[in-house]
Amino acid sequence: MVRQALITGGAGFIGSHLTKLLLDAGYNVTVLDNLSTGSRQNLAQLAGNPKLKFIIADVSDEKVLAPLVRKANVIFHLAAAVGVQLIMDDPVNSMVTNIHGTEVVLRHAAHTGTRLVIASTSEVYGKSSKVPFSESDDLVFGNTSKTRWSYACSKAIDEYLALAYHRQSNLPVSVIRYFNTVGARQSDRYGMVLPRFVNQALQGKPLTVHGDGSQRRTFTHVNDSVDATFRISQHQTTIGEVFNVGGSVEISILELAKAVIDRVGSSSTIETIPYSKVYSGRGFEDMARRVPDCSKLDQAIGYTPEHSLNDIIDDVIDTYTIRNLGFDSLPRVAEAIR
Fold first, then answer.
1. 4-184+220-248+290-307+331-336: CATH number
2. Nearest to 338 by CA among 31, 26, 5, 13
3. pTM value?
């Protein structure tokens, strides 16, 4: 029997890559997306696949969601407000989207007992100074006047809800904390640093580093992230657990900017911009280091990232090279996905 997968937010960056992986694995896939941050173009390469169904609706629309949940063997809940810029610009809608949307999915999945994987974020570690971050570590949030932490809190509530449904209703759910997942088709519209750097470098513009650039991160190729996501859904031992999914190479944002300039072969310079100027009056704080401990994931599914940082940068360069040449719109193909 062909298995049925439901992906909320499946027209988004990570969701579209997961959609392809599941189709390649033989699943029938239903994508539910309101296109607030997702795009038809992200699924354009899959147009015409008879195993793909694309529904444009909000995840909180229970009349639409309920029958989709009943038909699914597995649900991947990726629909959320994402990106620092979006969170800072629209904190109310971001929190409501993240918390209410997740609660609706959890409630319906609990009715049917459907296997569920929920996307969370490394942001939940907040201001913790214990590096690398482990799933058992305490979460340390900033003052409520600092808008940045509203996103972290909303996703932490998602996690609390998921684990509560697991304990109270025996819901087979797993939670994934993604760390800086990057790759082809990722937009720079919502403050994603690597796509922004690549786009600026290709145009010969200064690469704008927020803060002094000393903040350190790891980056994960989207193919590594979605492979881990799929494999987590296949293991009974991952039910009721939280997992970091991230890269293994730590780099400062300033070093990242230099690496992008080198890979592009650009004449761009680097410009540092104080947070107070980027997010004027909106209460922004950053994390000095965000590095995952993925040993729990490795023990569960044998996780080792296969793609290097240069692989990640090169994939983003390819994406923005195509966009800047004007071959990215694919209007007729994208319109065919309905």
1. 3.40.50.720
2. 31
3. 0.91
